Fold these 3 entries.
Entry 1:
Amino acid sequence: MHIFVVDDNKDIVELLKNLLKSSGYDVSTSTSGKESLDLIRHENFDIVLLDITMPEFSGLDIVQSLKDSGDLEKNKIILFTAASISDEEIKKWKEFGVQGCLRKPFDPSVLFETLTNVSMK
């Protein structure tokens, strides 16, 4: 399974990359929202782990751009954030087309459970 990790925090990107690779996943990463949007549109990722809060071009900007271009349905997006997000907001994003949402810090077992559930959809 090929997972694309997008977060402006390089430490989080490295942590997730190492965790996922050690569990057998193929992992690509980016710390740039705009660069990530282009990669999501032109590469085939099984799942995109996407930080919500990034400078200049946020994860939500990426999701909206994918929705506007008709590309959101082709991608399985899991949002993650350290910011406070309500269950109602999570429900709204799932209705919009996002497959899941994780709150940082998250337990690795929750991450792997979410990846498994989303990959089976």
Note: The mean pLDDT is 91.
Entry 2:
Amino acid sequence: MEEHYDKIRRGETDIVLIAGNAADRLSGLDPLFQVEPGFNVLDIGCHEGFILERLVRCGAGVIHGVDLHRPSLAAAARRLEGHPALLKHLDLCEGMAGLRRELPVSPRYDLLLYLGIHHHMARQMPADALSAFVNELFPLTGRYLAIRTPARFMEVLRQEPVMRRFRLVHRHDQNPNLSPVEIYEPI
């Protein structure tokens, strides 16, 4: 598995281990599409931008997105053409230092999307580095934090100290082909 991620880092492969189409990616996120226009978004692991495209139609203002897979970022840029989204190639194993270097990180994002990325990072980063990353990242949430990751990774993520600052407001696990989505609000 690590070899796969190394090939993506080096740009040696266009193949990425991704499951799901646009409908799958949007599944369970309906509460996020009800936010008033002008909201700002940080999408960690934005992939091809299906979710960001939908958020633009819902009135998103500032959009920041990062992903490791360059072809996916190019697809996201095409999908968001005409919107001033800032999409950056980033190896998230660099943690918050890399994120702050690549983006003018907002003190708070109305929506922080952490969808389908945690289990990939857990395979690439030492547990303490990943813990430090999420404990520094999640406080950037202004209104909603959306997480999608397999249950065994979610159980560990829920134990992070930062999660005591959030309360679960929505859980969607009705699609048997996908990991559940959990949406949190800061307390």
Note: The first helix runs from residue 2 to 9.
Entry 3:
Amino acid sequence: MADSPSHALPSASATRRRSISISRGNQWLIGTVLVVALLYYLIGVDQGAYSIFGSHMFIHEFVHDARHFLGFPCH
């Protein structure tokens, strides 16, 4: 009886690399940066008093605990 491993390595056709074009990669990068910048503003910067959404404190109160957990001072 020949010794054969119980697990075989995947064939070359089964391990294909996914590639995207540089322009598509740039679109993903720009989109990701915009989303992260918006989240950073909403959680870390928006204080209600000088909010871009007016003088309402809705966003500040909604992310208040997350702000403290992440180390952002707010009062």
Note: The CA atoms of residues 22 and 28 lie 10 Å apart.
